[in-house]
Amino acid sequence: MSALLNQVRDIMRTRRYSLQTEKTYIYWMKKYIFFHDVRHPKEMGATEVGAFLTHLAVNENVAATTQNQAMFALLFLYKEVLGIELERLGGKFTSAKQTTRVPVVLTREEVAAVLSHLSGVNWIMANLLYGAGLRLKECLRLRVKDLDFGYKQIRQTSSVRIRFAKSCQNRAKQSRRRANTRVVILCVIHLRRIFCKTARTSARFRICSDTRN
User: Fold this and answer.
1) Per the structure, how many domains does the chain have?
2) For residue 145, what are the domain limits?
């Protein structure tokens, strides 16, 4: 099984899939294989895939999006890795129930109350999430090069892929309109501190290595 999963990783990395997608797909592939008593996927087909997806919906009570995620992972395994075209899965498994969720939107006063209880790095991150419309991972990947002081906005770079996200036009406009100059400046200061600290640590490590040699 390890050889198969290594092959999956190689293909996904060659095609530049994100690390999170790779981990998720590997997770579902492992679960599928163990569900069928560690049989090789080549020995199975659409019937076994359908049985696994039905198990997720009926016994594990997963959401429809989770079931779809597992299905896409297995379709990738068969088509892209094993080179096997599965039969149509329609009607071969029980679909998970669609859940209707109404988003909870805080008022400005409630947001201000939440932010008033934060400080330091957490305050900066929360302000960027709310004020610039960033997702959590986009905020964590933010770098100094992503900040544009001239336009007082966050650039759409490899670290912050706003243009590739849902509602990309609205989010891009939001980041231009609502980005707070003070928050951006504090963000830069914080990132520079991290950079300087990392540089000092690397320098100390090099000095120690030279001394040992």
Assistant:
1) 2
2) 108-212
